Amino acid sequence: MEMLKTIGLKKYFVGKEYTVKAVDDINLKVSKGEFIVIAGPSGSGKTTFLNLIGGLEQPTQGKVLIDNTNINNMDETKRTIFRRRNIGFVFQSYNLVPIINTWENIVLPIELDGRDVDKKYITELMKTLKIYDRKDHLPNALSGGQQQRVAIARALASNPSIILADEPTGNLDSENSEEVLHLLKKTVKSYNQTLILITHDEKIAQEADRILLINDGRIVKESR
Ligand SMILES: Nc1ncnc2c1ncn2[C@@H]1O[C@H](COP(=O)(O)OP(=O)(O)OP(=O)(O)O)[C@@H](O)[C@H]1O
């Protein structure tokens, strides 16, 4: 089943003196449960592409379909709600709220959305990510790797169909990076979620179902 499709996707940044073709005609199909790694040099368009997929930016041309829903022809409010319910984001910075504990951070987006928290699922998720024993801790009482695992649990808390991760281990040492990415991969597989990950880590890239190499806003190589 197709979970994500981009059709003729373009994002051009146009200034007075320049036009940057950050994403330049990307056509991609991703199946449910697939694990995709996006690689490529700095400035090649990886983040812009991920932001387009997640509806954080609107394309100059083309469209993004998630589970057959065109996310580009809904208004901003609808897109925000769609994003909250269907897409989980993990960034390099953890962006945890410092004054509430781990559990509260994880369930916050669900509560803000006015929905019931599935306590059993959250507990299971935290156990898989090995942070359940830290559920009452404030973020600053956790290591970097633990904080990122909390951020991952928060991204997965509403059981989204797609997880978008932009260099999520960029702030971690290699040992922690591997553990975090290993747990992220294990978690998304167990819930059959689709994972799209930007990483420079060769070892992790080798574990993906597909690696897309991006250069100058285009997919220049695809390997399995
Ligand atoms: N808001 C913007 N206005 C103008 N140009 C932009 C804007 N955002 C991104 N760009 C340009 O688009 C190109 C792609 O940027 P992007 O951040 O997507 O690259 P990247 O592959 O993620 O890079 P990195 O690996 O360094 O994070 C770059 O040339 C960048 O300078």
Write the topology of this structure:
Elements: E1 2-14, E2 19-31, E3 35-39, H1 46-53, E4 61-66, E5 69-70, H2 76-86, E6 87-90, H3 102-112, H4 119-128, H5 144-156, E7 162-166, H6 174-190, E8 194-198, H7 202-205, E9 210-215, E10 218-223
Parallel strand pairs: 3-8, 3-9, 6-7, 7-8
Antiparallel strand pairs: 1-2, 1-4, 4-5, 9-10
The protein binds adenosine-5'-triphosphate.
Adenosine-5'-triphosphate binds at residues 13, 20, 22, 40, 42-48.
Pfam family, one: ABC_tran
Family: Belongs to the ABC transporter superfamily.
GO molecular function: ATP binding; ATP hydrolysis activity; transmembrane transporter activity
Key features of this structure:
ATP hydrolysis activity, 224 residues, nucleotide-binding, 4-stranded antiparallel sheet, binds adenosine-5'-triphosphate, ATP-binding, alpha/beta, transmembrane transporter activity, 6-stranded mixed sheet, Rossmann fold
Give your account of this protein's structure.
- The structure is a single chain.
- The chain has 224 residues and is an alpha/beta fold.
- 33% of the residues lie in helices and 29% in strands.
- The chain has a single domain, classed as 3-Layer(aba) Sandwich (Rossmann fold).
- It is built from 7 helices and 10 strands.
- The strands form 2 sheets. Strands 6-7-8-3-9-10 form a 6-stranded mixed β-sheet, sandwiched between helices.
- It starts with a strand and ends with a strand.
- This is ABC transporter ATP-binding protein.
- It comes from Vallitalea longa.
